[in-house]
Amino acid sequence: xxxxxxxxxxxxxxxxxxxxxxxxxxxxxxxxxxxxxxxxxxxxxxxxxxxxxxxxxxxxxxxxxxxxxxxxxxxxxxxxxxxxxxxxxxxxxxxxxxxxxxxxxxxxxxxxxxxxxxxxxxxxxxxxxxxxxxxxxxxxxxxxxxxxxxxxxxxxxxxxxxxxxxxxxxxxxxxxxxxxxxxxxxxxxxxxxxxxxxxxxxxxxxxxxxxxxxxxxxxxxxxxxxxxxxxxxxxxxxxxxxxxxxxxxxxxxxxxxxxxxxxxxxxxxxxxxxxxxxxxxxxxxxxxxxxxxxxxxxxxx
Amino acid sequence: xxxxxxxxxxxxxxxxxxxxxxxxxxxxxxxxxxxxxxxxxxxxxxxxxxxxxxxxxxxxxxxxxxxxxxxxxxxxxxxxxxxxxxxxxxxxxxxxxxxxxxxxxxxxxxxxxxxxxxxxxxxxxxxxxxxxxxxxxxxxxxxxxxxxxxxxxxxxxxxxxxxxxxxxxxxxxxxxxxxxxxxxxxxxxxxxxxxxxxxxxxxxxxxxxxxxxxxxxxxxxxxxxxxxxxxxxxxxxxxxxxxxxxxxx
Lengths: 301, 249
What we know:
heterodimer, B: 3-stranded antiparallel β-sheet, 5 helices, 9 strands
């Protein structure tokens, strides 16, 4: 660990890993609850066109990716709001268009396969201190939005009709969460790559929800799991000369497997203490079984 | 302005909570609601009855502006739903707690989200009056008898307990009008009793309640008006002269 800290780029990369480990699962918790787990993936495809545009106009590829992916995210939300059935195909068109456009634009720029590869699967070594400042600013913005609008977004993700009947600006909040996801994709793409970026938004949340009972708890555990897998995945990739993105994602998946195993133990223990007359409800088994159990408990009580 | 539930309505002090004029709702080429006229006055406890598919849920959603009308109009306190702003006066209890993507939420988190209409949109949660929020959530949990379950995962409770969570969420917002969609469907006896006591408290405080139900059951003595729907039309309307609480209808 101390050896890798001697390199400037590794210090920058580790700081970045902490930032994306925090930001990606925070946004991901809302996406999972809204059943939009693949939204980040789609935005990643669209962002590639932004990178192509950035390279072609010799401006910043990150800036290009930011603008195009936020616009893409807004377009996705508008399509979703318009029609639930047509949106599915429209989304696919948008995703493939983004990916194909990105590849064409980068090759039109004379860009080699390697620069494209760096964006698709992540390349830590190319990150500069200026990139880090930009990413830190964006990560702060993402976490700020989650803190500011957390209550509203929670209700929106629970039940959209109840959110409307509470007077929440449902359309604005939907666009806000999609745009925040787009910003998160752009933050994470340098380290993890556009094709895998969504994993860090979703997998830590999937792991956390095996163990937790509440929304806030899930988000905090997911953020911890995100930082853990991002930092140790990066360190491992340096140590064993592996690509960072896939290392981070595989570590997050390993954490998920561990959480599934741990979760079933926790649930069994809770179920046992419930039958022992505790107030903790039975949580073992499938939802239907649980409901029957709890119902029986109520009737007995 | 912030924490008083009983302030006079800001928009139009004399307007009824809900008015409906010739409302039609079309879905899949069929009129789910076909010309409903209705006025719900302050203090009414209105039960909307009728068989499955009669349009009961659609009617309450139309009242709240959650489904678009194909003809006619509805108003909430004298304003069309799109222009209505005082949503903190409305507490909506949906039929069930959606599972969503399966991220767990504690009972307390779900109930606390009922306060959201009372908090300023542009002020972070940190600067809102958290003591008042906490007290309201505690009261709501106590009313429905779920204080002991506050830290449990809401989705792992029984159907009846989940229904009580949803009622507590509406109670936590301290609204003037409650709109409840089938609060008694598939609910065990204990939850029905908890619901009846919550409603008793509301009706006693002069709140307006619109309630969709198959079977009034233990809620019967609280109801001041009934409305029976059949195939999207009002087939029978009746007013109970005086209730068990001695309140004139």
